[in-house]
Amino acid sequence: MTESAQEVSVNSSALVTCVSELEATNTGLVAELHKYVRNVHYTDPTGAKMYFNERNEIPSDLILESLIVMKDIDLYYEPIATIRGPDFMPEMFPNMSDPNIWKSGKVPVSRCSDPCLPDSRKKFGSSIHKCCYECVRCPEGEISNISDSENCMKCPDDEWPNEKKDLCVPKWMEFLSYTDDPIVAVFSAVSILCCLLTGLILGIFIHYRDTPIVKANNRNLSYLLLVSIMLSFLCVFLFLGRPVDITCMLRVTSFGVIFSVAVSSLLAKSIMVCIAFKATKPGSPWRKWMGGKLPNCIICVFSLVQVIICVSWLSISPPFQDQDTHSYQGKIIIQCNEGSVIGFYSVLGYMGLLAAVSFIIAFLARTLPDSFNEAKYITFSMLVFCSVWIAMIPAYLSTRGKYMVAVEVFAVMASSIGLLGCIFFHKCYIILFRPGLNIKIVIR
Predict the structure, then answer these.
(1) CB-based contacts of 258: which residues, under 8 Å, 6+ apart?
(2) What is the domain range of residue 214?
(3) I need a surface site. Which of 241, 246, 328, 346 has the fewest CB within 10 A?
């Protein structure tokens, strides 16, 4: 072989890996080809033996050819690459991607594994060959945004992978939103309507305050009970919208104190019914308990206990806004953390205790002979009240996120409507539509 270009025919099957890797990358090209041709030697037509020099350089130009075998056609060689001189810089391989020059009809690939897409990573060790791997999809919460990545990247707590798992996107914020949740509009409308209805009933009672049905069982207690029910409907709005620290602190404490005042009023009504019946007997010592001082003391004492529980809760470990980023994939639950679970259940437990005592006393006094005996209505109202809150507990514990808040709102509204309907609807019916019955009762 002379210094001019010499043609060397090399079987394509022996150089598939070499040529394919030349096509795949331009970096490290010299070393890759040296690996296959450094030990190649041959004898030229003149009988001279040809070797690479001590630096593994090609002393002359080489033309790589592929032997093509066609049906009914003679064999011929197809040039596929030219390597120039000792600088060893390959030219473009124009025929490299032509499948007709390969035996299988496909361009050979010099890799044992397909490239991993951006949503996956390499997993080594599944093959006896160290360079081989398999592609596994990134786990939940992680992404891969480049091909052939060996590791997936974990998204921040406030972000989540998109569907392609190649980009972290912000998580969906979940809470009872005024703009996105129709149930909030329903709660708001019902709360406002019930609040207006309670105010209307209060106005009726004030207007007809001198009638017997309003004066019975202490009309001041009825006023206080109506105001408490009205406030309980308004405190529903503390549960709606995005929670913040102040609304979290006012949620449970507000309706806890308000309901304690309302139930204490019913307890005072029930006790006064019992005292009024016993005071009708001649010489009864119960007469000294008649009047407005005893029911006022009952309401103040029992409501003050709930206030002390709430103040202690807020002083030791108050509720605060919290973000739950782990319960659901792809969304953050904006919620109120109770702070102290003992404080939360102490408020509910005391409220339930008051309701149970009121129910027992009203149940015992329901058959006392009195034309305006409210005990049977108080009994039914406490039965509705306790049923709502007992049913709320398992529903509250089995839900999360905004549905947990919706359960609380429903319990507040249902119990308030139960108190309003059981105690006052029949009285309003008599006042507005059966005034003769009211006068007839007075005559007795």
Answers:
(1) 228, 231, 232, 235
(2) 182-443
(3) 246
